[in-house]
Amino acid sequence: MEPTEDRPTDTGAGDVRPVDVLTVVSVRDVTPAVRRVTLTAPGAVVAAAGPTLSLLVPRVGDPAPHWPQVARDGRIVWPQGSHGVALRSYTARRQDPAAGELDIDFVLHGDGPAATWAAAAAPGAVLGVASAAPLGDAPAGWLLLAGDETALPAISRILAAAGSQTRGIALLEVAGPEEEQQLPAPAGVELRWLHRSAAVPGAPLLADAVAALPRPEGEDLFAWVGAESATVRTVRADLRGRWGLRRPQHHAIGYWRRGRAMSPAG
Ligand SMILES: Cc1cc2nc3c(=O)[nH]c(=O)nc-3n(C[C@H](O)[C@H](O)[C@H](O)COP(=O)(O)OP(=O)(O)OC[C@H]3O[C@@H](n4cnc5c(N)ncnc54)[C@H](O)[C@@H]3O)c2cc1C
Asked: Could you tell me if the CB of 119 is within 6 A of ligand 1?
């Protein structure tokens, strides 16, 4: 799911609701490049905020962000003028409504409003959530999961939800061994870590690894892919062409675009 940013719209009083606001309770580095931010909110807000979140990221240090509102049909209604809030897609790595807590793992890629916010995040900081969406996965006897650091939260949730008899492979592209994470998985799913080493994020590592995989037999297959957009396009073409996967058998989404922001900050 690529985020969409809607123009300010006058929907009339009563047609809009406020966004949900979550407050940071703690921050810790899971790996050198991944920062886990734990947020708190009432249980119902936590339960509704995921697994995929349309996150509203304020300027670093803004104690009272000028949030947009959400129209009844889900469109975001932006405030007029400069507000400094950016819309980005993220994944709730963990949702615990009973504890009123939700974790988001941010890749500290060094640029952009979300990565900059995460690098500076501290208890008391706030984030908005405009809407939530599913991960796009589907149960199958054989799973292909392919993604980079940005997709690890989604892949960890898909693996955790997979039945114990599930077979398959997860191709996980990270900078190096220091970026590998513990991901509980069914015994029949191989976790294969691909190290970029000197290559830049979004290098063709993942696409090459998928291209080297023989197509599993049968039709009880599902492929889930989340990574840099050009990589995902290559993988999607391979899965639709060589593997012959039909639309219900795969979900392949560009999670970020090399050299381009996902959408401008307001
Ligand atoms: C459905 C969905 C779920 C996602 N879940 C997560 C998640 O849980 N955790 C997570 O970290 N990301 C996740 N992403 C990816 C995240 O939305 C993008 O990386 C986004 O661009 C980050 O916004 P930003 O403001 O930091 O950078 P932007 O303003 O969007 O981009 C600024 C610059 O940084 C570059 N850039 C962006 N991301 C990366 C990257 N990962 N590596 C190297 N360069 C990069 C861009 O090419 C651009 O040049 C998800 C994306 C989608 C679509």
From this structure: no
The answer to whether the CB of 107 is under 6 A from ligand 1 is yes
**Above pLDDT 70, what percent of the chain?**
93
Q: Identify each DSSP E strand in 34-183 by its residue range.
A: 34-40, 52-57, 69-71, 76-77, 86-96, 101-107, 126-133, 142-147, 167-174
Residue whose Cα lies nearest atom 15 of ligand 1: it is 255
* Residue 124 token pair: 């008391």
Domain definitions of the chain by residue range: 16-133, 142-256
Smallest CA-to-CA distance from 186 within 209, 156, 206 is with 156
What are residue 71's DSSP bridge partners?
A: 16
- pLDDT band of residue 8 (cuts 50, 70, 90) is very low
d(CA 52, CA 136): 9
Pocket test for ligand 1, best of 5, 52, 225, 262 (most atoms within 8 A of CB): 262
- Atom 10 of ligand 1, residue of closest alpha carbon: 150
Instruction: Among 256, 258, 263, name the best residue to mutate to test ligand 1's pocket (greatest count of ligand atoms within 8 A of Cβ).
Output: 256
Fold of the domain built from segment(s) 16-133: Elongation Factor Tu (Ef-tu); domain 3 (2.40.30)
